[in-house]
Amino acid sequence: MMQPSGVMHSNARPNVNEAQSSQGGATNWAKPAIIGLFGLPGSGKILWLDTLETALGNDNFAVYHDSDIIAAATPGGLQAFQNLGEKAKSHCRQLAIARIKQECCNTGKSAIVAGHSMVWPQQNQVSQSGYAPGDLAMYTHILYLDVHDAMVAEHQSHDTNQNRPNPPISNLTSWQAFEICELRDLCRHHDILFTLVSPQLESVSKLGCIIRDFRTHSEAYNKNLAVQRMDEILTDPDRLETVIVLDADKILAQEDSGVLFWEQLWEQVHATRAQGDGSNPLKALFDSPLGYSYTAFRQATLLYEEILGDVEFEACCQTVSLLIHMHGDIRHLLQSVGRTKHVQAVVVTCGIRSVWEKVLEREGLSEKIKVIGGGRLRDGLVVTPSVKAEVVRNLSTVQGLYVFAFGDSPFDLEMLKAANEAIVVTGEDITRSWSMENALAEDIGKNGFQPRQVALSQHATPLLNSTQLPSVRLTDPRFIDRVLAIYKRPYVLHATDRPSAKLLMTPMRNASVSGPALREAHRRVGYYLAVEFCTEIIGFEGYPIPHVQGFQTDGHRLLNEKETLIVPLMRGGEAMAFGVNDAFPLCTFHHAKIPNDIQPENLENMATIILVDSVVNAGNLLLAFVQHIRSLHATIRIVVVAGVIHSPAISTSKVAWTLGRFTGLYFVALRFSANQVTATGITDTADRLFNTVDMD
Predict the structure, then answer these.
(1) Where is the region Disordered (predicted)?
(2) When you count CB atoms within 10 A of the terminal residue's CB, does the N or C end of the chain come out lower?
(3) Banded model confidence at residue 587, pLDDT cuts 50, 70, 90
C-alpha cells in the first residue's frame, strides 16, 4: 500500500494585518473552500484523506469520504445509489456537495472531499465523462493524485474491498490522461483551481501547505499582501517622495520571461501527460475563460509548482535570466534612481519574480531595486492587473507619494491611470501589444489621463500620434530631472481676503451679470492681478519716459515685457487675459484651446509665458498645458493667472503633486475656493461670459 511520507509543519503564511478575518480569507464563510481530492480508483485517495485529517486537524478542516456523503444524500444509502442511472447519480452528488458547503458555511471550516470524475471504462468501451454541468459548481479547488499507472494497477490488484474490474495498464494510462485533460479544462470553465500532485514525490507537509494556502488565499488577501510587500520595500518613507513602478516583461527588457521559461523547459524535458504538445501552457490558460483574472494567475502558479520542484525551478529561472538583456535606457534610469534617497523604483510584475531578481542582480541593481511578483506558492501572492493598480493607488492616494508607472498593454491601463505620471512603453512591432493603441485612444483625456510614450527600440513604431501620446526619451536630462525632482509647494499669490478682491469678485459671482458686463469685470480683474502680483513674481524694469514738465524721467514696465507671451485658455480665459494685456501692452498675445495650440515658434526668444483662465477647478487642463510647455522649453517662466483656483488643485490633489515638481511655475489668483463644481449652463463661466447658457 502506498505510504505518504513526511511530517506536517505549520503553514508559515504571512499575517497580512489579520486580513483573513475581514478580507475574505480563512473566514470567508459565504464561499468556503471546497477542495476535491481526485484520482483514479486505486490512487490512494482514502489513505491520503485519513492522513490529511490527522495532519491538518479538525479546527479549520473537515474531511469527507465520497461514499459516506453520497450514502447520506441518497435514500437507501450507497447500495441504492449504485443502482441509479447516471442522471440520478449526478443529482445525488450535487445534493451531497451542497450539504457539505452548507456545513462549511455554518462552521467556517474548509472541506476536503474525495471523488473521481469518470465512469470506469469497461473493456473495449470509450471513457465517458462522469460530470453533469452542476457537479463542479460547489468546488473551489481540485487536487488530482497523479499516481503512476503501474502503481495504480498494483493497488487495485491487492484491493479486495472494492467490486470493480482491473483494466490493463494501457487502459489506466489512457483513462488517467483523459481524466486530467478533462478536469483541467472543466476547471477553467468553472473558475476552479486545479493542480496535479504526485504522492510518490510530494510529502504530506507539501500537500498540507498547498491545502492551507487554498484555505487562506483570496483576491482581497492577495491585494492586501501586495500592498504590505510594497510597504516593506519602502525602507525610508519619511524621506521618500517618488516611486517608480514598472512591470518587467517587455518593459525592463524586450523578452517575456514566461515564454522563455517554457521554451527552456521543453528543451530540457519531454512533454508531460498533462501538457503534451510542447506549447506554452500559459497561453492556453490566459486564452481560456479565466482570462487574466486572479484565478488565472493563481492557476499559473500551480502550473509552475506542478512541472518543477523548487530546486529545478530556480535552476530554470537562472537559465532564463541569462537570456534576458535589459534595455540600456531603463538601466540608465534605474542607476540614476539608485543614487538617490528620495526616489525608489520597484518592479511589480505579473511574471516570474525569481527571474527578474536574477536579472537585476546581474546588472548590479538588486540592492536598490526590489521585485514584487510570483511564480511559486511560497511567494505568497500573484500579481494581476488589478493588483498593480491597487499598489499604485495606495502609493499615490494613501501614502501621498508621487508615482511614475510604466506599462505596455491594456492590462496596465488601470495602473497607469492611478499614477501621477504614466509612461507607455512601445516595443518592437513583432512583440508589442497592438490592442494598446485602441485602448489608449479611448481613455486618453478622461479624468485627466495624459500618458506619454517611450520607444525602447529604434525599430518601434510610435502609438497614436504626438498630440495624443507625446514621446519622451528616458535619457533626456529633462525627464531624468522630472523623475529625480524634489517636491516643492507651488508658489502662490492671491487676494482672497483683501477688500479690493471682495469688490472685484462681486460682479463675477453675481448671477445676474453676464455678457459684456461680465467680460468687463473679468478684464478689470486681469488688470488688477497683473499689476499687483505678476510684477512681484516677474519683476519690473525702468525705461526713460518724457515728464510732463519737459525732462526725461524713469518709467517702469514688466521685466522683459516684449519677451512675454500671454495665452488665454479658451474660452473662459480670454476676457481676463485682455486685462493682463492692458497692464502689459508690449506682450505677445496668443489664443490656445488645447496644449498643442502652443508650438515651439510661439516660445522662441520668450522669457515668460502667462497662462490665463477664469477658473482652475481640478487643474487637469492646466497641468496638460504646463507639461506641454515644459516639453518645449525647459526653463521658461510660467505664471498662471486665474480668477478662482480650487485650492486642492494646487495643494493636496494628485494634480498638485505633479505641479509641485515643476520649477519656474507660479500661481496668481483673485481668490481661493474650496467649492469645486462641474459647471454647465448657468453655472459655467464661459457660457455666462458669452451669453450661451441656454445652448448645449
Answers:
(1) 1-24
(2) C
(3) very high
